[in-house]
Here is the input.
Amino acid sequence: MPVFDFVKSSYSTASDECVEIAINVPGTVAIRDSKTPSGPTLHVTPAAWAAFREAIVQEDAA
Here is the structure.
């Protein structure tokens, strides 16, 4: 099983709740809740992650 190297968003502070992502495993973006690091993870393709990020940027710009 691959070992994911999770990182928090640079926009979060130490006390904020946010998601963490890992992009160190080829072909997979792993996402988890920063409040529950030992909890479940969601795995998506890099293309799905890019589409999600693009949708957020477009929503934020509206």
About this structure: Strands lie at 7-8, 19-22, 29-33, 42-44.
